[in-house]
Amino acid sequence: MINSLKLKKWTAILITSALAISLSACGGTQTASQPTPGNESGNKAEAKSDYPQKPIAITAPSGAGGGLDTTARALTKVLGETNLVTKTITVENKPGGGQAVGLADFVNKDPKDPYRLFLPSAPLIINNLKKEGNSPYSYRDLAPLAQLTKDYGAIVVKADSKYQDLNALFEDMKANPGSVTLAGGSAPGSQDHLVAMLPAVKAGIDPKKIKFVSYDGGGEAMTALLGGNADAIATDISGTGEFLKAGKVRVLGISSSERLAGEFKDIPTYKEQNIDAEFTIWRGLFGPKDMPADVVKFWEDTLKTMSETEEWKKALEANGWENGFKSGDEFKKFLEGQEALIKEILVSLDMAK
User: Fold this and answer.
1) Measuring CA to CA, which residue among 263, 248, 247, 238 is closest to residue 321?
2) Which of the 8 DSSP states describes residue 135?
3) Rg from Cα positions in the chain
4) Burial of 284 by CB count in 10 Å (0-12 exposed, 13-18 middle, 19+ buried)?
5) Are 236 and 196 in contact (CB under 8 A)?
6) What's the pTM?
7) Residue-wise pLDDT tens digits, 263-296
8) Which residue, of 60, 79, 246, 280, is most buried by count of CB atoms within 10 Å of its CB?
């Protein structure tokens, strides 16, 4: 009799336990490990929210020490210092072809890989539009995340030059094009060349008659100017600071929409001299074309937050950059506008595709 009672008791316990396990299993179908009906991708969405989970690589399509490399390394430093990104970020240099080599390498890898980023500048657009361009790719083959910095073009002469303003220089170019040598740190049709051609075209000069000499970088162009081998150079304004302070050069005009502050506050814009032209030299961050939407959102939010930090403002000041932050759709709209402007200049030069 006692054994019978014990048997019934154990049977009841086993049944109760079985029911509990069954109910628990049923409830488990609604946990994160198994998606709910109609949300079969729920598990993936939850995993993506943990981005980033491994190291990130930024490709700078230039050599070490160049402007793009410097920008990429400043970016990684600030993201780490502010703990906005806690995973390791490395910078990989892919120089060659005026950014074309690095772009081709980037585009031809996994278009969905969220751990690869690309940091180019205006030649991303220029190389795709030139008749003899060396890139079949453009910003349309990437996912624009944010414009980070902005710089401006400048027309520069020696401090003892007879030219006191941009119009005086252009009048001589109109009257006798071969008498004025204009130089820049890039090939015809590239960034420095366009910085010079844009205001010249707007001033009514036939750009094909301008005597333009190419040098391998802004430093060499500046050396040519100071050595008397060029009458003027087209360059970026941030690269003129030390020469202005030393009293070695005069900047005739700048391609910004309004005057800059600080050491450049006395330099007139092209527009102030009745030349309706402006040009922004930008650097920005992109992901691969099919980067997942949630990762794009992560970078847009993170970079916006970073752009407002004291650490980033100090990096901008230290490098002579302007904070040109534009995110997502705003950046894409800007790129479309610059593409149209660059195409217009290249057409006037008979250098467009």
Assistant:
1) 238
2) -
3) 29
4) buried
5) no
6) 0.77
7) 899 999 999 999 999 999 999 999 999 999 999 9
8) 60
